[in-house]
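The data are set out underneath:

___
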Amino acid sequence: MNLPKLSEEKVKGKSVLLRLDLDVGVDTSRIESAKETLNFLVENSAKTIIIGHKGRPEGKVVTELSLEPLVKAIEGLVGQEVTFSPKTPGEGKITLLENLRFEKGEEGNDENFARELASLADFYVNEAFAVSHRPHASIVGVPRFLPHAAGFRFTQEVENLSKVIENPKRPVVVLVSGIKEDKVDMAKALAGKADKILVGGKLPKYFGDTNPNPEKLMLADLTFDGFDITLNSAGRFEAEIAKAGTIVLAGVLGKYEEEGYRQGTKEVFRAVSQTSAYKVAGGGDTEAALTMLGLTSKFDWISVGGGAMLEFLSKGTLPGIDALLE
């Protein structure tokens, strides 16, 4: 996949609209993943206009979802003053604009809103892989009206995740867990790419009494309270993991934050970490659990996106990628 890449001649001395993933809380690691791109723009004297969203305000101004509190985090990352300005670039070299989702045009991918954003800059950079599965104005609309490129981390995401779907070492085993019901469709879609899909968390409940693809899908049994998978299921998962040449970890297997429901996640994650397979993981809870267990260094790649990672692996692209390639 030949993504348009950042280079000095494209951005030096220009105004650059930089789409980041700013939907963060106390953990700002997703912002930190953009450090290389931010520093590159600063070093090349680009006037950087940062855009992003937080939460689901549904086109209304919700004070507690303002992006202004993130100014300090970004300043700490780049060592430069950051100006907060609701809708227009400030006088400084780096400006953070207000939550895009305060405008209905963002999620509606309104062409006029996309043009309005594009009019603020000379160049557009997408460094928000984790939300590039959303066909929103700042992801798919703006690239139609500006020269553009993928950020450094975005490019690395595509390169590392592509190893899972382009001539991977087999068997390919994907662990899909968590509480979001939409992951059920992802698990079914991935059955066409992977050799085995291991399904944990709350997801087995959403399948009902029928496994639609018993050859590919292995559904965990849950403990009586539904907050973890059973030890027997963990053992079945570990047997499949031991055979794998490539492993994708997407979601935790239970309510890992509480020690009483951590066993499934701990046993399965450790089993993955001990293999010689090519290993990738993605999603906020997944990364938090790996950090808690001290296993992050055992993985070849940890993606900033959970849903975006799964959609990329199942479809081979994302709306945000297609927009950069057009």
The chain has 15 helices and twelve strands. The two ends are 12 Å apart (CA to CA). Residues 8-154 form a domain with the Rossmann fold fold (CATH 3.40.50.1260). The chain has two domains: 8-154, 168-314.
